[in-house]
Amino acid sequence: VQLQASGGGSVQPGESLTLSCAASGFTLNRPAIGWFRQAPGKEREAVACLSTNNDITYYPDFAKDRFTVSRGKAKNTIDLRIDNLTPEDPAVYYCGTDLGQASSYALCHRRPTTWGQGTQVTVSS
Fold it and tell me: What is the spatial distance between Cα 49 and Cα 57, in angstroms, rounded to a whole number?
């Protein structure tokens, strides 16, 4: 079971960015997949989670307006689109899962058991 996050980079404020999480070793038809981020000096926080058995999504309040989690165009991928990036968004973004957890809400509120390596997002003008 592996996850690999990609798509990070440096963008200007107000721009959009799409991150991708590629899953291998399991099929995206049951477990929830979540995106989390960790800024320097801060705890890792949930950004968005998707249940792969029914495509139900969950977002914490701060992420409801600008973050969108969805199935990617590539097979076995889950994307995170971030719109209107702000100076509060720079962080290392991680995708995570728990094969025994199908609920997007539960995954976002509990720590995944499997993490991908992070991808860095920087916002600078």
Answer: 6
Query: Where in the chain does DSSP place strands (E)?
Result: 2-6, 9-11, 17-24, 32-38, 45-51, 57-58, 67-71, 77-82, 91-97, 114-115, 119-123
Give 20-75 pLDDT, tens digit per residue. 999 999 989 999 999 999 999 999 999 999 999 999 999 999 999 999 999 999 99
Q: Is the pLDDT of residue 125 over 90?
A: no
Q: Encoding tokens for residue 22?
A: 């590629």
Single-letter code of the amino acid located at 105: Y
* 106 to 42, 83, 102: CA distances (angstroms): 22, 25, 8
